[in-house]
Each structure stands twice: as C-alpha cells, then as structure tokens.
Amino acid sequence: MNAKVARFMSSALYHTGLLPVLRAGSVWGTSGVFQVLTYHRVNDEADPFFPAVRTAVFEEHMAYVARTYRVLTVEEAHEGVRRRMLPRGALAITFDDGYRDNLTHAAPILARYGLPATVFVATGFVGGAEVPWFDRLALAFKETREQAITTAWGDTFALTTVQERLDALARVITYFKRLPDDHMRREADRLLGALGVTGRGRFKNLMLNWDDVHALTGLGFSIGAHTVNHPILSRVCAERAWTEIIGSRTMIRAACGRLPKAFAYPNGYAGDYTETVKHMVREAGFSCAVTSRFGLNTLRTPAFELRRGGPWEEHLPTFAVKLAAYRLAGLRGARRAA
C-alpha cells in the first residue's frame, strides 16, 4: 500500500467515526496490555542531520493520546501488568538519550495534557561537553568541506549534496554499530579527523543538565537509566557492561536522590544485548528494561525485554489508525503464542 492510499484510508477511518470500531476490534476493553511509544528529539529545527519530531506534530499526537488512551510511565505500566491491575487502553511514552529539547519542547506539551513520560538518560552526557558519538558524526558529515572521502575500511562516499552526505552518514553509523565498542570509537575519531570536524563546541545545550533533569522530575516525569556512555552492550566486555549499567544508576541516584527503576538498552535491538546483560540489569536493581524491539506488552512479555516502537507519522489520522492497528496485531500475536 503506497503512502497516498494509506493516508486516504486512515483519513476515512478517522473522520467518519469508524476508528472506534477498529479499536473495538483490537479488544480495546482488554486490560493487561500496553504499548510504549519511543521518541528522541522534539523541535522545529528541521535539520535532516539531527532528525526530530516537529513540535506541532508532537502536540497533535499527544492531544489524541490524551483523549484516547490511559497514559502511565513505563515503570507504572509494567508494575500494573505484574500486579494484574493495569487499566484498559494503557500506553507509555518514553524518550531516549537525554536531549535538552525533551524539557524545552516536549515537556510543556506533555504537562499541558497531563501526560507522564519516562526519559532515559545516558548519564555521561548530562551537563557535560560530551555528546553521543553518532551526533558528532552527524555534525561532521553536515559541515565537512570534503567533497568525497574514502574510509579506513575501504568505502568511498561522494559528499557533494546533502542527500549524499545523509546516505554516507547512515551507512557509516550502520557499519560502526556492528563493531566492538573500543574499535568503533577509534575508527570514529579517525573518520572525524579525516572529515576535519572534530570540535564539540557546537553542541552546547544539546543535552540535558542535572538542573534540567530535576525540572523534569518536578513536572512528573520519571528518569530511567540508559548507561553512562551509550555503548551497545553486546559490543563491550562484561566488566565494561556492568560499569555502564550500575554507573548510570548510581549517578542518577546521586543527582536526583532516588534510584531509577527502568533501564533502556542502547540501540536496543535483538543483537544489542545478551542474556548476561539482562542478568546484570536485574542484578543492578532495575525492575524492568525496554528494548527497541517492536510489539505489544502483556503479562507474557519478559520484564527485561519490554517492547517499544512507533508510529511516528506526521499525518494524525495515520498515526491514530496505526496505533490501533499495532495493538490489534500485537494481541493476535500474543494469542497465537499462548
């Protein structure tokens, strides 16, 4: 189905009042299931190298969610499932990494609609000069004066247009995510040098500081841990993985005076964490952990492999219809697995 047809059908369902029928078909009244939405950045910069949900789109999403779903923090939703006391139509909202626009752009909208959310912060970036390695690469591909580059592993990329630079950035990030973390960081520094954009000064106020984190908690947000330095945990040794997991929890407790209950695996797909990593997260004292694996959460979903995902469509009817359809598909899958 192409995008135009999907928009037309979604609009028809949304504007003719048939969407509640789809929600009813997804066993809307069933309790004990919840979806988790994932966001990263919300702003109006329209920078393709640093993608974000536009503020107006995010507000439309949240207005619809507020009048349609029962929104809880991911910690509350998991606890509700565990105790078999989850309200019907439950949904959780999460943000990853700890970007400052979560406070400046997203939080006022969520507060306006009385919606809680969980912000997973990589604590090594809070209030400091460091930013995630992929943001450093994004800036380098955006601002380099090079018109082409050959990487140390033999790939050559033309860099004459914005689209060529975006394509090169995507391919480099995909390649780096498969490498052991120490190797990846060495290669990233080498590539940044070749691109001639290594400075961090342009990233002032990109990430939250601890005062910002306190402001979020004052608005009813929960703070979850997302490691210290955002390594993919299956790409580091067990000792380093433990340091990243327990270190982030300790830093949040020291700064906020309370222990985080939820953890988010960096990148978070099936190959990005292991059984050993899940055991470490449990041993560190977390009550649940979220992945980037798509799906619906039920009592059968492992507490340390909670599913998350979209939709992220800008077109509100498509967003609304997909949200209901994903729930329906998840419930059918859960029944087949039972």
Instruction: Tell me the total number of β-strands.
Output: 9
| Order of SSEs | HHEHEHEHEHEEHHHEHEHEH
- Taken together, the total number of domains comes to 2
CATH H-level superfamily of the largest domain: Glycoside hydrolase/deacetylase
Total number of helices: 12
Helix content: 40-55%
Envelope shape: globular
CATH-assigned fold name of the largest domain: TIM Barrel
Strand content: 5-15%
Give a summary of the structure in a few sentences:
The chain is α/β, with parallel strands linked by helices and 338 residues long.
Notes on the protein architecture:
By secondary structure, this protein is of the alpha/beta class. The chain contains 12 helices and 9 strands. The longest helix has 22 residues, at 316-337. The radius of gyration is 20 Å and the shape is globular.
Write the layout of secondary structure elements.
Blueprint: H1 3-15, H2 19-25, E1 34-39, H3 55-68, E2 70-72, H4 74-82, E3 90-97, H5 101-112, E4 118-121, H6 133-143, E5 148-150, E6 156-158, H7 162-177, H8 181-195, H9 210-218, E7 222-225, H10 238-256, E8 262-264, H11 275-283, E9 288-290, H12 316-337
Parallel strand pairs: 1-3, 2-3, 3-4, 4-7, 8-9
Antiparallel strand pairs: 5-6
